[in-house]
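Before relying on records like the one below, remember that each one covers exactly one chain. Contacts with other chains, cofactors or solvent are not represented anywhere in the record.
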Amino acid sequence: MRTLMCGLTKVDLIQKVEVVPGANQKIQSHSAILDVGGPAANAARTAAALGAFPTLVSPIGSGIFGALASQWLEEAGVRIVDLASDGDPAVSSVLVDAAGARSVVSSNNAGRLYSFPQPDVLEGVTALLLDAHLLDVQIALARTARGAGIPVVLDAGSYKKGIESLLPHCTHIIASEDFHLPGIDNDILLERLVWQGAELAARTHGGDPVEAIVGGKAYHLAVEKVAVVDTLGAGDVLHGAFTAALGSGEDALDSLGAAVSLATLAVQGEGTMAWAELLEAEVASE
């Protein structure tokens, strides 16, 4: 299997704090790390760790931060198609408090100069993941992929202007509880996504059950109650794991259940990829 992720790559400065400071307040963090981030990049790292041979299509760049991001991704087993025509990816400031909640400030892809990938980028791909951070490129990829019978997964973490044009080309849409569509009641959001052509529409609610509609049936997937250490990137892990499972030929609902379990494991460790070590420890103890 070979997965393709398209969207945002960032470099994150992540600081652990007791509480997020208020206006004009200075505090000292417990720790600080620099790491690659972004929904598409983190999903690609997750897929790589699960053996899904991911390619990341993203504007990264050849500047100092771009070189760092590319190095970290390649070391994680991610193949890169860099679309950047300028220097560096977005840089995010991330604060993670004592409860594991995160606050993020990021420039995302605003103002970036980038090109389109070559037409053969989808050759041999078994599942495509999009994050709506590169809409013009993603609409073209989604349209082509769906026409070729390739599952198109959308990470709908939050509403982004123009996303309505992308939705009809996506086969599997996983939204967060923060996602909304203007003029659409949240109570019928999943039904609306299915009506627009999604084979699976799901919505996460943090530690509460995941709602899903698959094959015309509604489901609620339980989320195990655990001690939360760090929620940063947990959604990206979920989307990467779902895409990897779907790309391997797994049933969509089973893929979602496995992805939810992995995301639950992810919040129990510090850092986006801490789940890999936790999973290894679980397997070794069995």
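The radius of gyration is 18 Å.
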